[in-house]
Automatic annotation (TrEMBL), chains A, B, C:
Keyword annotations of the record: Cell membrane, Membrane, Transmembrane, Transmembrane helix
Entry GO terms, CC: plasma membrane
Transmembrane segments: 6-28, 40-60, 72-91, 96-114, 120-141, 148-174, 180-205
Bilayer disposition of the protein: Multi-pass membrane protein
Glycine transporter domain segment(s): 10-87, 101-171
Superkingdom of the organism of origin: Bacteria
Localization in the cell: Cell membrane
Protein name as annotated: Glycine transporter domain-containing protein
Presence of the UniProt keyword Ribosomal protein in the record: no
Membership in a protein family: Belongs to the UPF0126 family.
Organism: Microbacterium radiodurans
Length: 228, 228, 228
């Protein structure tokens, strides 16, 4: 029943890339003043969000990036970013829909990444890791290139957790013998639901804590213990 | 007439790497005070500018980085960076020459990247993309590692556009049957000329705009619409 | 006597990864206030420090990342990061021990990287470069993702120098016919000693200087000469 030859259909892959491109453009349109982006910058952000996760996935897998083997991915990401830029006023009114789409997109990237890793014979833990990197990699690249704090690193985000749990469910279900397509659909659903619940109910992880109580440093200090 | 076995001659590749290394050192010498760099930092910037584009190109192509297959590239980039550091006073008086050389260097990196991608059988759009990444990749890595805003992301730069147009001309000419060496020379010339014109006449892309007029937010705000 | 089939034993590799994970967690526990990290962020930092150097090494070598071919690396890095987080109060009292361990870890990563490159047939200069990148790569990734100035880029650090010298000793000894295991042990020792001496005696590289004296710009300015 399990089909190890699971291939991500091109239309599904391009849909995720296109949604990512629109996301990127809407993100980029939020910058004003000195930080404003020209259309090239908008397209770059669109490409990073739409294709960055897949690039990271393939680099970690040690295979040539599939998104650069055809013209379609770049054309889709670029077109989607330009459409997103031109229609950003309309899209901004659809904020709820965009957040929903975004939740589906990270689910898709995570599921594609995890299943590709499993199909290539990687063990379950790295497969989950690579899926999670594929899901959030685009947003990390975006934040780094924009000089923003990397969103997933700070308290208040269940973004990466949603991706990782969905990937783990996919990998676990596959290990238990579920067909990979079914496992992928369940994994995507899990990621999407966790992400949406986190947004709706404003859930986040607790802050890190050490086992022994200590006097809490009140001010914002960022002094590392071991200075390299 | 078309020679798909086009190989970048080592001397040309090393020339571009060396020019990049000098560029990097001159850039690094501009930092003073708390941001100042030690000689190791200067060498690192020189290596990033001289070899970073080629590394990114080969990672995107899924081939082992050619710049690490021989001793020459690192030795060239390092020597060039040290010479650039020691002679930075002289080079700074040659600012116009440096800007001119830089324009040629991004042309070279772009042409090498695009033609290598085409020779490896990639379609035209990813080939142009990889060439552009090879041309500007070094400066992106430099800005990220220095903690600076990534230059190509903000209004006021025709750097990446010059690279992309030159790569597109190369790829287009090749597709139309031009010998790849001729196409490469034309592509390098196009990139160089656009870049120099942009510097001389201070040309830049228009700011992104949405189709419908909106009240312009005056202050610098950087609030993304969809917070991940 | 030289054994080109030198393989890094899994226990040694995992030890380095685990030490890196603890290091990462201790680093992360130093952040308070708005910069504070949730447990996921601590784990991500632990993974970056423990596995980032090996990932960069394998990307530069053009081989699939070995740390993602088994479950052990991610499990070790994650567990070590969580233990480091929970016991950070205890570890902080052992600051001297931690700095010592860190010096050994960069020696290990550097030696593993250089010897893997040599075994794969790379020339000596790129092998030293890749070893150095493997040693400091994790801390670069950590600084970039945390939005901190990249530590190795600024005056006051012999971190990267210690790694590079150790790697050069390893590569030089191998070139002179020493068995690679012996060369690796010497290289690790050299890196560790240089790093510890630099910490104890607060040694750093001199600031970059140009050959001709110039009026020193007093204020912190970061104006690059050639604006891209």
């Amino acid at each position: 029943m399990t089909e190890p030859q699971f291939v991500i259909p091109l239309w599904a892959d391009l849909t995720a890339v296109g949604l990512g491109g629109v996301q990127g453009a809407l993100f980029a349109s939020g910058f004003r003043g000195r930080q404003r982006l020209d259309p090239l910058g908008v397209v770059i952000i669109g490409i990073l969000i739409g294709m960055g996760g897949g690039l990271i996935r393939d680099l970690l897998l040690g295979v040539p990036p599939v998104t650069l083997q055809s013209n379609w991915y770049l054309m889709t990401a670029t077109s989607a970013a330009l459409v997103g830029m031109l229609l950003s006023n309309i899209f901004q009114r659809l904020n709820a829909a965009i957040i929903g789409l975004d939740a589906v997109v990270i689910g898709l990237f995570g599921a594609f990444g995890t299943s590709k890793a499993l199909v290539l014979g990687l063990p379950i833990v790295p497969a989950i890791f690579i899926g999670s990197c594929a899901a959030v990699g685009g947003s990390i690249l975006r934040d780094v290139i924009m000089g923003l704090p990397v969103a997933i690193m700070h308290v208040g985000s269940l973004y990466a957790v949603a991706a990782a749990v969905g990937c783990a469910v996919l990998a676990g279900a596959t290990a238990l013998g579920a067909p990979i397509v079914v496992a992928a659909i369940v994994g995507i659903a899990v990621t999407t639901v966790i992400r949406l619940l986190a947004v709706v109910f404003d859930i986040s992880l607790p802050e890190q804590r050490a086992l022994h109580r200590r006097k809490v440093a009140v001010e914002t200090s960022s002094i590392p213990i071991v200075k390299p």
